[in-house]
Amino acid sequence: MSDLVDRVRATGLLPPGAAVVVLLSGGRDSVCLLDVAARITGPDGVVALHVNHGLRGEESDGDEAHCRALTAALGVEIVVERSGPAPRSGNLQAWARDHRLGAAAGLATARGARVATGHTMSDQAETVLYRLAASPGRRALLGMSPHDGVLVRPLLDVSREETAAHCRERGLAWREDSSNTSPEYARARTRDGLVPALRALHPAAERNVARTAQILREEAEVLDGLVATVLDGRDHVGTEHLAILPPALARLVVRRLAEDAAGRLCPRAPGRLTELLALHDGALDVGEGVRAVVSGGELRMERTPPLGGRDSE
Known about the structure:
This protein has helices at 2-11, 28-41, 58-74, 92-111, 121-134, 139-142, 160-170, 186-201, 205-231, 239-244, 247-262, 273-277; strands spanning 20-23, 46-52, 77-82, 114-116, 147-148, 151-152, 236-238, 282-287, 290-295, 298-303. The chain is of the alpha/beta class and 313 residues long.
């Protein structure tokens, strides 16, 4: 599978000699990534991070043992962390993901390294499908970016079947996570339900979905540039100016202002455009703890004051 190594090398996400922290679960995708990273950057610059959440008892301990044996065989350093007790409520998978990424960020900072995850083209397609079903807006269609700060995803153009083939060719065993097929999780329902249905319609469905996400991310950069031109560094926009913009661009401006105020995604804000243009002077909640304020023909976004504050008196 030298072709796979060459394809990953061509992305530039794993430069030769670069320091990289590879998130290693023991599954085929992360095993493939670790091997490819070691071959491209050199094993001395690679450190594998395995987080044992202890959620599956002996199976979790087996994953850890497998990762230790694998890294020893590849001549790669490994750091193993054990997470604290899992929360009794809330999104368990999100808790585990946040713990892994937090541990990886700390290790990468200490090593002056980037963090690489084994997300594949198959994961990309599943992500787009899930987000499209769960939330409206173009953000759902953008999927995961190949790079996000120090985080890189070198396998986004590689399918899950290809990572398995690479591991077999290289004689690298991997572990199967039983929770990946549990219908309790939305991701598993997407993988086992939606993706096979799409493949039945067209064998290249996953690649087409992933390619569409890539095209839309490139187009999103153009749209973001237009929004920046409209705002010209300001944290407000004139309502008369907003009203003459194409509605799609006006919605993006509203979203940018709301998300800058919130410091996070505000998916409901663009849908309030018509109400905002009719507001004149006043305030309107746009979700995610943000309100729009129109005064003197200018639209601004601000954090919604807490209950009991001056504005509620």
